[in-house]
Amino acid sequence: MLNKNSELARTFWETGKLPCPIYDFHAHMDEHPEIYFPFSSAAEMVESMDKNGVEKLLFCGHFALDDPLHGEPYNVSAVRQFPDRLRAYHIVHSRCLDPEREIAEVDGHPEIYVGFKILGDYNRFPVDDPVHDPYYDYLNRTKKLLLLHTWGGSAFDDAKNVAHIAERFPDIRIICGHSFFGRQKEGIALTKQFPNVYYELTAIPIVRGYLEDIVNCAGSERVLFGTDLPWFSTMHGVGMVLGAEITDDDRSNIFYRNGEKLLEKVWK
Amino acid sequence: MKILDCHLFYGATNNGEPYRNCDTAEELFAELSRAGIDGGLVRCAYSNTVGVNYGNRFLAADLQKSGNPDLWGVWAVIPRFTNETPAAADLPAEMKKNRIGAVYLDPRTHRYELDPLTMGDYLDMAQERKIPVILNTSLGLSMRQIYDVMKAFPRLTAIVGDSDCWPNARRLYPLAASYENLHLDLSFVMDAGGVEDMVSRFGAEKLLYGSAFPARYTGSMLAVVRSAAISEADRALIFGGNLERLVKGGVCDAE
C-alpha cells in the first residue's frame, strides 16, 4: 500500500497512477558520456511523462549544459516538438557569457523559455558573481525563473550565494535545485526570508528524512517536484513524496499546486 | 501480492549518518506495516558498529520476537582463521536455527582482505548450499571486489547492489548478464526506465525489490516497481517471489 496513512498513496497503489497532475521543474534530455539511459530523447521523455502523469516538464538538455557553442538549439527543437508539454531553461555558462544575445533569445521566444539555469558547481564559478547581473536584471524585470543547482557546503552555489542574489533581485523566482542538498535545513533558514525562493527535490530521495526537513523548514508551499529525468525515475521521486511523513495536502502542493501557480505567468 | 524487501537494517548508531535512522526492530516492524511490506531480509547494524557476534545475536533474538514468517536475517561472516564466527561447516545449521536467510561480507568494516584465501571456505559452502550472499558497495565492497568474488565463485547465489547514486548500468549489467545465480538488489537503482530495461535484458527472475531502509525511503522503489511497465507476473517476482525462492532455496527451507 506504500503508506497506509495517505489517501493519495492508497489511490496510487490501487491504480498505479496519481489522481493529480505532476509538474517536474528539473529535467535534462539526450545522452550523457558518463551514463547509460534507457531513454533520453524528447519523444521518449514525453512518453514517460504520459505514462507517469507528468503534465509539464521544464528542462535543460545535456547538449546545452555541456557544449556552450552548439548545444542550445537542441532545447529549442525539443520544445517546438512538444509545445504543450515542455519548456526550456536557457543555460548560462558562467565562463562563456554573451548576455545580449542570450537574453534576446529568451526574451524573443517566450514560447520556448521560462528563464535561465546556472550550475555553479559544474562551472566552478559563484552563481552570485556580478558577471551574471545582466541576466538577473532581465529575470527580475520579467519575473521569469532562475533554476540554480544548489549544494550544501559549495563555494559556488550554497545558501549564502542564493541569498545574495535574492536580496539584490527580489522579483526573480529562484528555484534551488536539490535544495542545498546535505545542508537543507541551514540553507532554507538562510533563504526562506525571500518569498520568491523555492526548493526543489531532485536527489532528495537518496537520503531518508531530507524531504521532511525541507517541508518542515520551508513549508510545503515553497517546495517543487523535480527528478533530473532522464537520470532518475519520476516514480522514484513520487514514491518518496507519497511515503514520507508529511500530509496529503503537502503532497498536493508539491506535485502540482505550487507548480501551477509558478507557471501561470511564464508558460506562454 | 507478497512484498519482500531484500535490503533492510536497523540499530542505533552514533556515527552521524545523514539519514533518519531506525534504532530498533520495533521501529522497523512499524515501518514495514505502514508501507505494506510483508517481510524480507534484515541485518542488524550492530554487527558492524558494535561487534560481529553481538549484532548477529541481537538480530536472532529480534527475529524470534517478531514471529513474522516472511522476515529473515542476514548475518555478517568474517574469516575463519580467528574462530570468531561459526565455521563454514557449522554455519547452515546455525542459520536455519535462527531464521537467517543470507550472509553479507563487509571487508572494509571488518578489516580483512576479501580473497579465496580468507573467505573461500564460506563462499564455497554458500555456493554449494545456495545460501544467498549479499555483495553491496554500501557494505564496504568495491565493484572490483564484487567482480573478483563472482569470477572465483561463478555459481554463487549473490545479491548484488551498487550504492552509487548515479545510474550504474555499465557496472551492473555485465554481472547480471554473466552469472546465472546473481541477482540485483534494486534499492539503489533509481534510473528512469531501469526496471523495464533490466527485465527486458535479463528477465524479472534476476531482480529483487529493496529499499535500503532506513537509509532511503521505502516508498521510492515501491512506487517504481508498482508502476513499471512489466507484466503482473514479473512484478510479483520482483516484489517477493524471487527473494522467497532464494531464501527458501538456501538453508531456511532445507532439510
Detail the topology: elements first, then pairings.
The complex is a heterodimer of chains A (268) and B (255).
Chain A: H1 7-15, E1 22-27, H2 42-52, E2 54-59, H3 62-66, H4 72-81, E3 86-91, H5 99-108, E4 113-118, H6 120-123, H7 133-142, E5 145-151, H8 159-168, E6 173-181, H9 184-191, E7 197-200, H10 210-218, E8 223-224, H11 234-243, H12 248-263
Parallel strand pairs in A: 1-2, 2-3, 3-4, 4-5, 5-6, 6-7, 7-8
Helix pairs in contact in A: 8-9, 9-10
Chain B: E1 4-10, H1 25-35, E2 39-44, H2 46-49, H3 52-66, E3 71-76, H4 91-97, E4 100-104, H5 116-129, E5 133-136, H6 143-152, E6 158-161, H7 169-178, E7 182-185, H8 194-202, E8 207-208, H9 218-227, H10 232-249
Parallel strand pairs in B: 1-2, 2-3, 3-4, 4-5, 5-6, 6-7, 7-8
Structural summary, described in words:
The complex is a heterodimer of chains A (268) and B (255). Chain A has 12 helices and 8 strands. The radius of gyration of chain A is 17 Å and the shape is globular. Chain A has one domain: Alpha-Beta Barrel (TIM Barrel). By secondary structure, chain A is of the alpha/beta class. In chain B, 42% of the residues lie in helices and 15% in strands. In chain B, strands 1-2-3-4-5-6-7-8 form an 8-stranded parallel sheet. The longest helix of chain B has 18 residues, at 232-249. Classes of the chains: A alpha/beta (268), B alpha/beta (255). The A-B interface holds A 1-5, 9, 12-13, 16-17, 34-39, 48, 51-52, 182, 203, 205-212, 227, 229-244 and B 18-20, 33-36, 165-167, 169-170, 173, 190-194, 196-197, 213-224, 226-229.
